[in-house]
Structures are given as C-alpha cells and as structure tokens.
Design goal:
Helix content is 31%, strand content 24%. It is of the alpha/beta class. The protein binds S-adenosyl-L-homocysteine. S-adenosyl-L-homocysteine is lined by residues 82-85, 108-109, 111-112, 114-115, 129-132, 135, 157-159, 174-175, 229, 231-233.
C-alpha cells in the first residue's frame, strides 16, 4: 500500500502542471524578492519607492533574451552599447530625488524607459530625453503599451535639458557627465533636487545629489561610487 502511494505521488508529480515546460518564470515572485532583498534590506525606506519597485514590470523593459535575468542584482545590456541600471541604483536615485505625487521630473537618458516608469509611479509627470533614436523609439513604445501616460519622451541631446516643460522639482541624469550641465541647474526649481553621476567616461564616477535652496544656493553631496555609461553630445 505504502509503495502504491509512493508511485502515485511520483506520477502526480510528473503530470504536466499549469505552467508548461520552458515557460517564463513567475515575474511577480521574482520582482517581490528583488524589492525585499535588493532594495528594502539594503536600506531604501521610502514606501512610495518600494511600492514602485514592486509594481513596474522590469522584464518588459529589457530585450526578449534578457527577460529571465531582469530581476537580477545587476545592470543589463539594452543594445546600442547602453545598459539598464541595477535595480538598487534605480531605487536609490529615485529615493534621493524625494519626489511625490505633485512632482514634475526631468530624466536625461531614457534608455529602456524603466527608470522613467518607476518615477511615473510616484510623480505627477516625467519628461525624459534620449539621444539614441532607436532607444527613444523602443522606450516610447514600451511606456505607451504599459499605460504610462504621464511620461513624455523626446529624442534630443539631454545636455540642454528640456526647457519647454521646466522648471523641474527633480532632475535625474542616468549617464555620467564630467561636469554638471549648466542648463540642468537652470531648469531645476528652487527647493529642487538633482541626482547625477559625475566623473570620467568608463571609469568610476561619483553619484552626486545637488539641492537648490529656496534662494538658489546649491549644495552638493557625494552619495556613492558608481559606473554609468557616458553622457554623449550632439545627435540633434
Ligand atoms: N534610465 C535608463 C538607463 C539609461 S543608460 C533606463 O532606465 O533604462 C543611459 C542612457 O543615456 C543611454 O540610453 C544613452 O543613450 C543616453 N544618453 C547618453 N547621452 C545622452 C544625452 N546627451 N542626452 C540624452 N540621452 C543620453
């Protein structure tokens, strides 16, 4: 009798389950684990940021063949020599910006559109500039398909910011610059914050947080050592 139950159990185990062999992993579980282990356990406290990281389907922003790696603790290639940042860096930069439901945010470096989507979960509106046309086109399509109507994208050199929609409560630059572009400082509201990797291309850079006081006085703080792809110039 014992042996029969054993055989039955084995057979039941072998039966095809609801998930067919070769199917994609359960992204919801992977995303939840990422939000806890990579984000919350490392000290991100802002509840809106944690909720956004648990909500945005990161796998939709990476190339098809990278989907199963989307929630790993690392940056991933997105084509054209560019990368989508490691989830923790996305969360850290988002938290540093201190955005809320009234914020108007500028992003330089749309890339995959993932960081823009995370910001769009929290802020009123996100304006995102990308210099590589095919990346701009793809990210625009992804954001639209996922219903992020509060993200507006453009193909341009983000060194100049996007004056038309400014000034901004927060500015995030997701490519490294050797210095802080003056147009971005000009487009930051008094009381606003900017987060930008500053340093030489393809070397270790500093993630810098800039706060513009109510009277326009700037204070800067180095937050971490990072490695971002470089901010390039031209293209429009
Ligand atoms: N935020 C992105 C990651 C972007 S990687 C994401 O969530 O996926 C950095 C991006 O900055 C690349 O797509 C690169 O093409 C873009 N970039 C580099 N220089 C730029 C410039 N001057 N203006 C706008 N985008 C730029």
């Amino acid at each position: 009798m014992g042996r029969m139950i054993f055989i039955f159990l084995i057979c039941a185990w072998c039966l095809p389950g609801p998930v067919p062999a070769g199917a994609e992993p359960d992204f919801t579980d992977l995303r939840r684990a990422m939000a806890v282990r990579q984000i919350k356990d490392r000290g991100i406290r802002d509840k809106t940021v944690l909720a956004a990281m648990e909500t945005v389907p990161r796998h939709e922003f990476v190339p098809r063949d990278k989907r199963s790696s989307a929630y790993r603790d690392r940056p991933l290639p997105i084509g054209f020599g560019q990368t989508i940042s490691q989830p923790y860096i996305v969360a850290l930069m988002t938290e540093l910006l201190g955005v809320d439901e009234n914020s108007r945010v500028l992003e330089v470096g749309t890339g995959s559109g993932y960081q823009a989507a995370v910001l769009a979960e929290i802020a009123a509106s996100v304006y995102s500039v990308e210099i590589v046309r095919p990346l701009h086109d793809r990210a625009t399509g992804t954001l639209k398909a996922l219903g992020y109507d509060n993200v507006v994208t453009t193909h341009a050199d983000g060194y100049h910011g996007w004056e038309k929609h400014g000034p901004y409560d927060a500015i995030i630059v997701t490519c490294a610059s050797e210095f802080i572009p003056p147009p971005l400082i000009a487009q930051l509201k008094p009381g606003g914050r900017m987060c930008i990797p500053v340093g030489p291309p393809f070397k270790v850079q500093h993630l810098v947080l800039i706060e513009k006081g109510k009277e326009g006085k700037l204070t800067t703080r180095i937050i971490a050592s990072v490695r971002f792809v470089p901010l390039v110039r031209g293209g429009n």
